[in-house]
Amino acid sequence: MRPMVKRLLGLGALAGVGYAVWRAMESRRNESSVTWDAQPFPYPPQPRQPLAPVTPERTSSAGWVEPDDGVCPRTHPVKAKLTSGIFHVEGGASYERTNADRCYASPEAAEADGLRASKV
Questions:
Q1: What is the mean pLDDT of the chain?
Q2: Which is nearest to 2 in space by CA: 16, 10, 15?
Q3: Full-prediction pTM beyond 0.70?
């Protein structure tokens, strides 16, 4: 019985060392910018994405600009709401009351970004 217990303990220790080596190799291989926020029990940790660096330019390479307090500049009159996935053009029923998340130069640019036109 004693030799069997020693073998089991030895195998357990070997498995533990192997697992530790494997975890160290995986952590070096899968370097990402995601960090984790601990949550209270019984919830799992939540990923935390790093904040994008703030750039002085408001223009993106996708063809949209950020609005100033929900108001779009004259060069980009199409207002878009990201939560609903809808964009509004000038003269539309909801255009004036919409606080834009993004401003596009044309409806085609908004559609290319995955948004749809408002129904009214």
A1: 83
A2: 10
A3: no
